[in-house]
Amino acid sequence: MSVCCASAQLTFPSHTTTPRRVSARMSNQPPKPTTTTTSIFTSATKLLWGPSLPPGLLISTARTAWSTVWHLMMTQLAPSDSSGSYTRPTSQFRLNPTQFPSAASSELHLYVGLPCPWAHRTLIVRALKGLDDAVSVSVASPGQDGSWEFKDNTIPIRDKDKLIPGLDKANRCRNLKEVYKSRTGGYDGRCTVPMLWDSRKKDVVCNESYDIIEFFNTGLNELAKNPSLDLTPPELKGKIETWNRIVYPKVNNGVYRCGFAQSQEAYDRAVNELFSTLDEIEDHLGSNRYLCGERLTLADVCLFTTLIRFDPVYNILFKCTKKKLVEYPNLYGYLRDIYQIPGVAATCDIPAIMDGYYKTLFPLNASGIQPAISLSGHQDSLLIPHNRDSVGKAFVAQNAV
Ligand SMILES: N[C@@H](CCC(=O)N[C@@H](CS)C(=O)NCC(=O)O)C(=O)O
């Protein structure tokens, strides 16, 4: 099975840009009990133990069985170490920044899924650099068998450039596993998004998001509409690395360490590290428009894709509950600032994100029910003015894009 942003295999259901009801047949949820089955259960329990709770022995047996099954599922969903801390598996296809493939000899295609924060990074940098013509995209959605698959959504012609789940435009495969398998040399490992594919060589170029965004930022300038935008300017490389070393383990992966923890200790450690890092960033953003000062960098792109999922998903589903993002005025303004950079909003789809997480991470949300979220989690609220132009010495990075 595949999992959103994790390792194992639980997948996302299909989604659209607006919230909608998914029919029981189409969704990954178990069918709802009918009135007849509900009344059979009610009658059976009344017959067995009347209106009181089931006998203690039954409860403790069910509890042991339930928790064993939960641990088994979590082990596949999210491998952990002996202390119960989530350990993210490493990506198989990496890019060396000193040996980027040549743009002229490749035909690049990007595979993504909209709920995935790692894939989201690649969509943002592709949009900011103006690589939409140079790198085509297929948006995958989850299938019943647990792998990312491609669905025929018969996208209207006017929407053909929108990021909507659909068919595999590069290989006409039914699912991502088939694409990975068809690579020169074959493949039998984890089939994750984002995945960058070279249609000419019929091979995976890379399936590690940070490598892909570095490549998009500097390796394809001859094809980019905004070649002058540099999201890793040489003078900021040190700061970017410093922030990445903090933000990746404590925030990007930190929210997963909270949600996928398999012991109280592992959760406590993760949640404390997450919130002390958010407190630190909140302070920093009081006098810096972006993480590295006046310019938007790759470090911001990486932080942004976690922040936009925070109130609608991680705060609730992953128990990142000490605070909501909206309670951090600087972080929340920073989120809106980046969202309002031209090109970014079109890569964001909160209904698709919610659909993906709440309906497919079965061990964390067995009912599949999506919670109602407060206003701060809604996409429209990201259009509220951010008033951050004056924070620090504002070099308006988005003017360059
Ligand atoms: N380290 C990878 C993580 C990618 C990842 O975990 N993607 C998830 C979706 S959010 C996935 O495709 N999981 C499928 C699986 O694990 O089989 C990156 O940054 O690109």
TrEMBL record:
Ranges where the record places region Disordered? 16-37
Segments of skewed composition (Polar residues) = 16-29
Q: Which GO terms describe its molecular function?
A: glutathione transferase activity
Q: Name one GO cellular component term.
A: cytoplasm
Q: Which InterPro entries match?
A: Glutathione-S-Trfase_C-like (IPR010987), Glutathione-S-Trfase_C_sf (IPR036282), Glutathione_S-Trfase (IPR040079), Glutathione_S-Trfase_N (IPR004045), GST_Omega-like_C (IPR047047), GST_Omega/GSH (IPR016639), Thioredoxin-like_sf (IPR036249)
Q: Per the database record, which ranges form the GST C-terminal domain?
A: 233-362
Q: Which PANTHER family match?
A: GLUTATHIONYL-HYDROQUINONE REDUCTASE, OS02G0814800 PROTEIN
Write down what this protein is called: GST C-terminal domain-containing protein
Query: Organism classification, top ranks?
Result: Eukaryota, Viridiplantae, Streptophyta, Embryophyta, Tracheophyta
